[in-house]
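Study the following:
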Amino acid sequence: MTRNHKYIVFIAIIAFAAALAGVVVGREFVIPDRPVENELHELLHAQLKLDDAQQAKIDVIEKQFALRRRALERELRADNARLAEAIEAEHGYGPRVAAAVDLSHTAMGQLQKETLEHIFAMRGVLRPDQAVRFDEAVVKALTAKDQ
């Protein structure tokens, strides 16, 4: 292998590592951790003692959101792939990388907005006494230090 080829392979490895780091950073700092969601669902399904009508409404809300969340997560994966391609092509923070980052932020923001809409939709099904406990769990989840 010539020296030029070794240099190209080295740059490709660096670009791949940078793309992978971008994915990890995005997953760790932008998309909420699963345990927070699990805490809210545990509260809803096990502790708030939903009646049958509330449970049926919550089930519909959750099924609709699950479909939408999967679609947005697919979009985020596609955005990460475009970011990786841009990094590989530019080997630095160039216009394609910047555009790919901006595009991924749009999808991340949409996921966050739709997650909040989902939470508020579930809250709307609750009685006032249940809503107080739900609100406390949401605030705790959003302000937890060790997520």
Remarks:
- The chain has a mean pLDDT of 82.
- Residues 3-143 form a domain with the Four Helix Bundle (Hemerythrin (Met), subunit A) fold (CATH 1.20.120.1490).
- Helices lie at 3-29, 34-47, 52-90, 95-123, 128-143.
- The chain has one domain: 3-143.
